[in-house]
Design a protein that fits this description.
OB fold (Dihydrolipoamide Acetyltransferase, E2P); Rossmann fold; 8-stranded mixed sheet; 6-stranded mixed sheet; globular
Length: about 450
């Protein structure tokens, strides 16, 4: 096995020209591109090399010599060390402006187009918004301390943090307390992870453990749960081993403008930012321009996050999702909200779908798709066959949205409207929405 080549230390003096899609400063030196973490356009910095290849290198800022007027003081004490955030040195407005530029650039570079209309970006709250997260847990024997938090940048170590400013306060303000209590467990070195799910009505922590909990451990966790007003679940193996430590609870979020209550399990996919999700739903419904004659299809529907609000205003809507558990919950949510003009089907949308009941001979005049980061290239070319005249595409990756936009234009759609949405403030994650018409 070959030895890993060690990078020789090197410090550069660099003029930062622009911002990369990952939120790093971009500079050029000796015909190489240098990506600089923590640097902003217009700054002159000293930076230490961390990675090198033939055409590019990576570095971290060690000192800012000339400071951008846009630089602000980060709110978090471990910003720059923790890998959870990368944008706290920019204001909320400058963050969303950068994300909008990245989306514009992606459309131009990959689809050779721009939307006819740009809507004002959606923003809600900058801090304490994140309701779903996977936190690392590690017992550090040299410090005799359990750390709970996000991992450090470019490292498997857990950042030494007492609180997290982007996590919902029910958990974000209690990381040190969680660590202190886990230290008391008999298996403190056998706990690698806590999964967080904060609903409107309950907060659940899924404790991943690699060795069995004893009765004393159980009582320690129940005492903490009572003090923090949280519910512990445990996970000893795969997803099928997730179970309540003491009692199961329903987790709920709301679509108040549409009189809908959504129930989900702690490990189900939900949007992390509930307030932004409510605004996103309303924007998507407005872009679809729904009416009582519409037949709508919602692809990658999950729990029915978009499907059920759509159902309030149309003749019929069909939701398609590849996860059987999510389909089961989507059907339960339809029943819970007395919505009867909706059907849900399980299907892998990355495979052949022509034989499915919901596809064969069916027509839908409107559609919504909300795929994962990999996009939906396999399904977008089928939309014309389904009769879709108006499509809303919700994306978490500008690159795959732009790629799929090129395909949609190729088969006859036009990009009408687009907007970015700040689902993950303080990070470089870009959520966006686009409207296509025949």
């Amino acid at each position: 096995m070959g030895r890993i080549k060690k990078i020789k230390p090197k410090t550069y003096k660099l003029e930062i020209e622009s911002l990369s899609y990952e939120g790093r400063g971009v500079a050029h030196l000796d015909e190489k591109v240098i990506f600089v973490s923590g640097a902003l356009p217009g700054e002159v910095v000293l930076a230490n090399r961390t990675f090198a290849r033939a055409k590019f290198e990576e570095a971290d800022v060690s000192k800012v010599l000339i400071t951008s007027s846009k630089r602000i003081t980060p709110k978090c004490a471990v910003f720059g060390v923790c890998g959870g955030c990368s944008f706290q040195h920019l204001s909320s407005k400058d963050q969303i402006d950068a994300k909008e530029k990245w989306l514009k650039d992606a459309f131009l570079q990959q689809a050779k187009t721009q939307p006819k209309n740009w809507l004002k970006p959606l923003q809600v709250q900058d801090w304490g918004y994140r309701r779903k997260a996977r936190l690392g847990v590690r017992f550090v024997s040299k410090k005799d301390k359990v750390l709970v938090g996000f991992r450090e940048k470019k490292s498997g170590w857990i950042a030494n943090m007492d609180r997290c400013e982007i996590l919902h306060p029910s958990i974000g303000e209690h990381l040190a307390e969680l660590g202190n209590v886990i230290e008391k467990l008999s298996i403190k070195s056998q706990i690698p992870q806590l999964e967080v799910a904060v609903a409107e009505n309950n907060t659940v922590l899924i404790l991943r453990h690699l060795a069995p909990l004893n009765e004393k451990d159980r009582l320690i966790l129940l005492d903490l749960a009572n003090n923090l007003d949280v519910i512990f679940y445990t996970q000893s193996g795969g997803k099928d081993t997730i179970k309540p430590l003491d009692r199961a609870v329903d987790l709920i979020y709301f679509h108040p403008d549409h009189n809908i209550e959504m129930v989900f399990l702690p490990n189900d996919f939900t949007q992390v930012n509930f307030k932004l999700n409510q605004k996103m739903i309303n924007l998507a419904l407005n872009m679809l321009d729904l009416n009582s004659d519409d037949e709508v299809i919602d692809l990658f529907c999950g729990l029915g996050n978009f499907t059920l609000p759509i159902a309030r205003y149309v003749k019929h809507v069909v939701g398609i999702e590849g996860d059987a558990g999510l389909i089961e919950r989507a059907k339960g949510n339809a029943h819970r909200n007395d919505i009867q003009n909706v059907d849900f089907y399980k299907a892998d949308l990355f495979k052949e779908v022509a034989g499915f009941e919901w596809f064969r001979g069916k027509k839908y005049n409107k559609a919504l798709i909300d795929p994962a980061r990999s996009g939906a290239i396999e399904i977008v070319e089928l939309l014309f066959q389904l009769g879709v005249e108006r499509l809303v595409y919700v994306s978490c990756n500008p690159a795959t949205l732009a790629r799929d936009t090129a395909k949609l234009i190729d088969i006859g759609y036009k990009l009408d409207t687009a907007a970015v949405m700040d689902m993950f403030p303080q990070t470089t994650h870009v959520e966006s929405i686009a409207l296509f018409k025949i």
